[in-house]
Every structure is written in structure tokens, then in C-alpha cells.
Amino acid sequence: MLLLAASCEIPFDLDQNGEPKIYVQAIVKGAHVRIVPIVANPVNGASLQASPMDIQVELNGEPLTVHPEDSISYAASCRLLQEGDEVSVTVRSGSLKPASGVTHFPPSLIVKDFSWERVQVDTIDAVQVAVKLDHEPGNEEFYGIRILRQDHMILPDNSNLSYYSYITPGYILTAEEIGRFDLEDFVQINYDDHFLGGRDYQPLTLVTRKQFDGDTYRFYLNSFDASILSGIRDGMPGGNTGAAGGGIISGEVNPSAGEPGQGVPAVVPIGKRTVFNIYLFRLSTEFYYFAKALYQSNFDFLANMGLIPANFTWSNVDGGMGFVGAITSCYLEPIEITEYFQK
Fold first, then answer.
1. Cβ within 8 Å of residue 51, ≥6 positions away
2. How many other C-beta atoms lie within 10 A of the C-beta of residue 238?
3. What integer pLDDT is reported at residue 224 of this predicted model?
4. Could you give the CA distance from residue 116 to residue 219 in angstroms, rounded to a whole number?
5. How many CB atoms lie within 10 A of CB 103?
6. Strand 62-64 to strand 54-59: parallel, antiparallel, or no bridges (unpaired)?
7. Which residues neighbour 231 within 8 Å (Cβ) at sequence distance 6 or greater?
8. DSSP class of 284
9. Cα angle at 169 between 229 and 295, to 5 degrees?
10. Per-residue exposure over 6-42, b if at least 16 CB sit within 10 Å of its own CB, e if not
11. Are 109 and 326 in contact (CB under 8 A)?
């Protein structure tokens, strides 16, 4: 075992003399462009007093007005974007090399049919959801899904004690199907509608043609693979996936009410109303590849253990790092299930 452990070691020297670069995330959606620029220092940690950011945004070659949005981000407003619109972003700061990137706005999502039904196999009580698009996705079409679950516990006085969590779309309904489990079906990245890979738990699950059956995307809520994902997540250091915001998110996150013993009375509920809010996204190729790279940088077991070379960097920013991408969204009709407990 010692010989095997030693054979996995690959010593190498770090080049600590790199120049600072501009890191930028620019996300285009609706009639809005949000830009988060950061000066990235080399590995030796040398600090640089950067000049104020000079940001230029163009829509189909025409300049847009850019203004600070908060202490770390900038924004540009425009008309409602259409399929194929080209948005370019250039960031300058002092003597640093300018960083620039380009994206094209993806087509709108057209959902032809949306349906769901409750199914039960063995001890699994799940909801099967089917989303039919207006066409069968191609190999270079990329989507995303985010599911917000709200549980409203109905108390005897008809008031509610509410919790919410983000859940993962499932594809396995029985234990016999465990051989079909594939982590590639659960590539996720935190996305708070402004920034990719942050610490705010709002997981966006990436969806490709692989998860579609023709023009229809089917998945389960409360399926068997949810417990598998929870086991993987619980086994990770600190119970989370780190600063990159990738990896697996499952289980209850951010309850909107406290637990009994923390100022909330221990009242026995008489029922529960569960609401699933489903958001479907269409991603530009740049958005998808950068999101997947962030996931891989944080959830590649072999690379993180040093057993294989790390190879998960992706960027479409010239002269710097980061990405310029676009996203469009569609909110599906909420799924609501109410049940009352027997006395």
C-alpha cells in the first residue's frame, strides 16, 4: 500500500510569477446585462491596487449605458433581447490587459405541454413530471432546471408553519434501477439569478439532450435517487461543496421557520400542503460550459485526490478569465398537493 501511495505522487513546481488578470462574469437575460468584475492576483498573493473598472457593453455593435448596481457589480439595460442577439462585454482596469467576451442570446423556451401525476412503487411515493417542448433538442442545446419545494404544515388553528428547500430532479424510482444512477445526470451549480458558483444555495441542475426522450423531459420529485444524492452530500467535508458552488445539493436548505425549541411552539400539525415551483432555463453554450467547468472543479473526485490531472478550466474571455453568457427562463405551473393526517 505504501508503494502504491508513493506512486501516485507527482511533484511539480508552481509558477508564482504570473501577472494579475481581470476575472469577469457577465450574464445576459431578459433586457438586462449584469457584470461582476474582479482583479485576480497570481498564486503568490501579490496585491495590486487596481484602478476603477471601465466597462463597455455592446448589443449588436451598439453601445449600452453601464452603471454601478452595487459595490461589486455593474448593469446595463436594453430592449427585450431576441434569439441571436450578440452581446459583447469588455472590462478595463488601469494597466491590466483588457478582458472581453461575446455571447449570443439563446432561443426562447416554448413548452407545448406540461403534466404531472402521483406514482407509487413499493414504499416510494413520488410525482412524475413531463415537460414537452416544441422540438427535440439537438446536441448543442443546453437547458437547466431549478425546483423550489415549499412545505406548509397546517396547524389546528388553520395557520401554517412553512419551510422551503431546493430539490433535485430524479430519474430513478426503484432500488432495482440503481444501476442507472449516473452523476452526469445531476451536474449542479449554485445560481442566484445574478452570479454562478456563489455560496447562496440555489442549485441549477444542467440538462442536455441525454435527459430528454425525444421532445419530452421526464423526471421525478421525491424519487429514490434523492436519498443517494443526500448520502453523497452528507459524506462531503462540512456537508457542502465548497466555494466553487458546484457539486450535489439535496435535502432541506434554508428553512423559513425555526425548529421547535427555538422560539417556535411544538404544535402537532393536522395536515401539509406542498407546492413545487419549477423553473426551466435555456442556456447559451458559454453559460453551460462554464457552469459545468465550475462543477467539475469542485466535484471531480480523482482530480481532487491528485490521482489524475485536473482539466476543468473553461473560459470565453480573451485577455482575462471568467465567462460571458446568456440565459432565458420559463416558469411552469406550480404543482400543489394537500393532504390531511389521520387522527
1. 93, 94, 95
2. 6
3. 75
4. 10
5. 24
6. antiparallel
7. none
8. -
9. 60
10. eeeeeeeeeeeeeebbbbbbbbbbeeebbbbbbbbee
11. no
- What are the pLDDT digits (tens) for 163-187? 999 988 988 877 777 777 777 888 8
Instruction: Name residues whose C-beta falls within 8 Å of residue 280's C-beta, 6 or more positions apart in sequence.
Output: 109, 111, 131, 143, 144, 145, 329, 330, 331, 332
Which amino acid would we find at residue 123?
T
With CA atoms as reference, report the closest residue to 66 among 30, 26, 33: 33
What per-residue confidence (pLDDT) applies to 43?
Answer: 63
Is residue 249 within 8 A of residue 188, CB to CB? The reply is yes
CB 304 within 8 A of CB 258: no
Indicate if the pLDDT at residue 45 is higher than 90.
no
Does residue 102 carry a pLDDT above 60?
Answer: yes
Residue 134, helix vs strand vs coil = coil
Say which DSSP state 178 is in. Answer: G
Question: First and final CA of the chain: distance in angstroms?
Answer: 59
Instruction: Provide CB contacts within 8 A for 116, sequence distance 6+.
Output: 127, 128, 129, 130, 335
The predicted pLDDT at position 326 comes to: 98
The pLDDT value given to residue 264: 53
pTM, entire model: 0.83
How do beta strands 111-121 and 66-68 pair?
unpaired
Q: Tell me the C-alpha to C-alpha distance, in Å, between residue 228 and each of 223, 238, 250, 252.
A: 10, 18, 10, 15
Confidence of residue 77 (pLDDT cuts 50, 70, 90): very high
Give CA–CA dist 22/24, Å, rounded. Answer: 6
Please report the pLDDT score of residue 132 as a whole number.
98
